[in-house]
Amino acid sequence: MPLVKTSRLITIERHIVEQGAMHPDATGEFSRLLRDLTLAIRILARDVRRSGLNDILGLTDSTNVHGERVKRLDIHANEVIFRAMDHGGHLCVMASEESEDLIHIPDEYSKGKYVLVFDPLDGSSNIDVNVSIGTIFSIYKRLDPSLTTPGTEADCLQPGFKQVAAGYAMYGSSTQLVYSTGRGVDVFTFDPTIGEFLLTFENIRIPKRGRIYSVNSGNSHKWAEPVRSYVRHLLQPSDDGLRPYSLRYVGTMVADIHRTLHYGGIFMYPADTTAPNGKLRLVYEVNPMAFLVEQAGGKAITGTQRVLDVQPEALHQRVPCFMGSVDDVEEYEHFLSMNGSTT
Ligand code: AHG
Ligand code: MN
Ligand code: MN
Predict the structure, then answer these.
(1) Whose CB has fewer CB within 10 Å in the chain, the N or C terminal residue?
(2) Over its length of 343 residues, how does the chain's per-residue pLDDT go in tens digits?
């Protein structure tokens, strides 16, 4: 059994350049953007590793735009990504979970044709207990790439199918970077001894059906009937041995999606009576993950439509989501249609 699923010994930098070269009109700008982003992720991987040691843990007194108490590591991650990305000349604007408004490129730096949206630290509730956390990112081309003026909110509010790249870093038992530029999903693992991300899984494919469901069941009393009856169904043993499903829920979307990409099954954050659009944010959480899931051969829906087709209306808007193996998501859709409901 090989340790890794690829035989090519290749760093992420090299991989990015090779992929860039496949585009006939590539200027190298996109490759340089990704290289800057991997620098931020390297720095964050280091800081997360040391987080119990350098007084970076703990709550601040402030709340973010969602009214949640913010961990110091969230703010730190927001700053590191900004500082790595503001001066490269590749971006015209950024948006982040931890910044209420758009993040503008400082006046002194030139504006490029790309847009970066990100969740600097995903899984904040797991920081203090040494459970996997991550960073989620998504890249768009600005609406008018010929402009050299600052980017606008409209540039950040493009539907997910327009993403030119998306990915996440997971700071787990190792640090992995998982990303796609629309040609499948590749996984890189950080080797701290040489300071490089090495390609470990190429073009991962999500199983057509899994045997795991992932959801915060503590909210089940607030779900609509189709979600409840679907989950009840998953727990019923079946003669073909496909059910009952196992429940796995880390509470860090990055980790739950990472497992889903490898093992299959379904990850859900449904709407409920107190959260009519669920909890997760469309622009910098659900869209990038939906892009990866689709690129790996899976499916991602809101309950009423394909996630990537949703036209965002606000930077921090939430959306219900159901994503993972095609057969699992379609089985949920079957429950929706039986109940004559779409939530
Ligand atoms: P964040 O830490 O960026 O605020 O995101 C946390 C999200 C996501 O990672 C996870 O799937 C979800 O919150 C968990 O929410 P519940 O605790 O409500 O299950
Ligand atoms: Mn998050
Ligand atoms: Mn976050």
Answers:
(1) N
(2) 444 566 789 999 899 888 877 776 677 888 899 999 999 999 999 989 877 665 565 666 677 777 776 668 899 999 999 999 999 999 999 999 999 999 999 999 999 999 999 999 999 999 888 999 999 999 999 999 999 999 999 999 999 999 999 999 999 989 999 999 999 999 999 999 998 999 999 999 999 999 999 999 999 999 999 999 999 999 999 999 999 999 999 999 999 999 999 999 999 999 999 999 999 999 999 999 999 999 999 999 999 999 999 999 999 999 999 999 999 999 999 999 997 654 4
Evaluate: CB of 272 within 6 angstroms of ligand 1. no
CA 109 to chain CA mean position, Å: 28
How remote is the CA of residue 211 from the centroid of ligand 3, in Å? 28
Q: Residue 79: count other Cβ atoms within 10 Å of its Cβ.
A: 13
343 lines ligand 1 (CB under 6 A): no
Same domain, 262 and 322: yes
CA of residue 235 to ligand 3 center, whole Å: 31
- Which residues make Cβ contacts (< 8 Å) with residue 45, sequence separation at least 6? 169, 171, 175, 190
Domain termination residue (choose one: 201, 220, 247): 201
Is residue 245 located within the same domain as residue 153? no
**Quick check: CB of 97 below 6 Å from ligand 1?**
yes
In short, whether 279's Cβ falls inside 6 Å of ligand 1 is yes
- Number of H helices and E strands in the chain, helices first, is 8, 15
Centroid of ligand 1 to alpha carbon of 5 (angstroms)? 30
**What is the span of the domain harbouring residue 315?**
212-339
| Beta strands at 114-122 and 133-141: parallel, antiparallel or unpaired | antiparallel
Output the CA 77–ligand 2 centroid distance in Å: 12
Whether 206 maps to a domain, the answer reads no
Do you find a cis peptide bond into 106, omega within 30 degrees of 0?
no
